[in-house]
Amino acid sequence: MNRLRTLLALVALAGLLTATALHAQTAAFSIDGEAYPRMLFDLKVQARIAAAGRNIQSLRHPGTLRNYQQEVLNRLIEERLLAGEARRSGITISEPALLAAMAATPAMPGMSAEAFREEVTIRLLISEWVQQQSKTIQAGDAAIAQAMASGTRPELAERSRARHILLREDARSGATATGTKYPLAQELLARLRSGAVFADLARQYSDDASAARGGELGWFGRGQMVPEFEQAAFSAPLGQPVGPVRSVFGWHLILVEEREAPRPASDAEWRQRLQSQLNAELLATEIQIVIENKRKSAKITVHLNQYN
Predict the structure, then answer these.
(1) Pairwise CA distance, residues 183 & 256, whole Å
(2) Third-level CATH fold of 156-263
C-alpha cells in the first residue's frame, strides 16, 4: 500500500512538473509570430489585481479574473503595436538612455532580465513616438473659438509662487522634538531677516533639486504641496521669509513672492487651456487610429482559453 501511494505521488508530481513546464513555454498571445510568454502575462495580471487592492484568491467569480486578463491583454497588445510603429518610423533608443531608464524603473518580481529590458525599451519607444506625434498635432483657431463660444469661462484657483530652502533630516533624528537641522534652519532664517539673499542661501544649503534655481518652485495651487508647506505658503506675508516649517521632507524656509486670489481666466489663459485640452484629445484620437489600423494589418493570435 505504501509503495502504491509513493508511485501515485510520483505520477502526480510528474504531471504537475510537466504542466508547469508546458505553461512556462506557452504563449499568452502572439503578434505576427512573436510570442508573449504566458508566465509573464500571468505576472502582469497578478500585478494589476494587486493594484486594484485585491488578490487572486479573492476573485471568486471566473468572470472577474477574465475581465482583468482582458484588460491586461488589450494593453500589452496595444503597447507592442505602438512600439512596432515607433520602430517602423525610425525611432531607436540609445544604450545609455535604456540603461538609465532601467536603473530608474523597479523590475517586476519574477521577470527575467531580458524581459525587463524589452519592457523598458517598449515604454521608451512609445514615449518618444508620442512626443513626436504631439509636435505635429495642433488644434485650429476655429476649433478653439467654437469651444470658447459654447463653453464656460473657467475659474482659476488661488495660487502662490514661492521659493524654499529644504533641510532634510537624517533618518536617525526623526524622533527628536526639533531634529538636527532645526538650529541651522533658525540660523538661516536670521540671516535672511538680516538681509541675506534667499536665492543665494538656497543654492548653498537647500537639500532639494530646486537649489540650482535658487529655491524657485514656480506657481502652485492648493493640494499640490504637503499640508504644512501649503498652510505657510498661502498665509505668509509676501516677500518675507517664514519658517522653519516641518514636513515629512524636513525643515522648510519659505519665501512667497506672489499670490493670486481665485479669478476668472483671461481670454489668453482660456485659449491656452483649451488648446492643451483639444491637442490632447486629437493626440488620443490619432493614437487610437494607429492602434486600430495596426490591429487590422497584424496577425494577432490569443491563446489564453487553452490554459485557464
Answers:
(1) 22
(2) Chitinase A; domain 3 (3.10.50)
Q: Give percent above pLDDT 70 in the chain.
A: 87
Q: How far is CA 298 from CA 139, 284, 293, in A?
A: 31, 21, 9
- Residues in contact with 282: Cβ distance below 8 Å, sequence separation at least 6, in sequence order: 137, 139
* pLDDT tens track for 57-96: 777 777 888 888 999 999 999 999 999 999 999 999 999 9
Beta strand 155-156 pairing with 263-264: antiparallel
Per-residue burial over 13-49, b if 16 or more Cβ lie within 10 Å, else e, is eeeeeeeeeeeeebbbbebeeeebbbbbbbbbbbeeb
pLDDT digit string, tens, across residues 276-297? 999 999 999 999 999 999 999 9
Domain map (residue ranges) of the chain: 19-154+265-308, 156-263
The mean pLDDT value for 104-133 works out to 91
Residue for grid cell 494589476? 48
CA atoms of 116 and 244, how far apart (whole Å): 44
Asked whether the beta carbons of 86 and 128 are under 8 A apart, the reply is yes
End-to-end Cα, the chain, rounded Å: 35
Q: What string of DSSP letters covers 219-270? A: EEETTSS-HHHHHHHTTSPTT--EEEEEETTEEEEEEEEEEE--EEPPHHHH
d(CA 180, CA 176): 8
Copy the grid coordinates of residue 226.
Answer: 504637503
How many angstroms separate the CA atoms of 213 and 210, rounded? 5
Superfamily of domain 19-154+265-308: Porin chaperone SurA, peptide-binding domain (1.10.4030.10)
Q: Tell me the per-residue pLDDT of 129-151, one tens digit each, with 9 for 90 and over.
A: 999 999 999 999 999 999 999 99
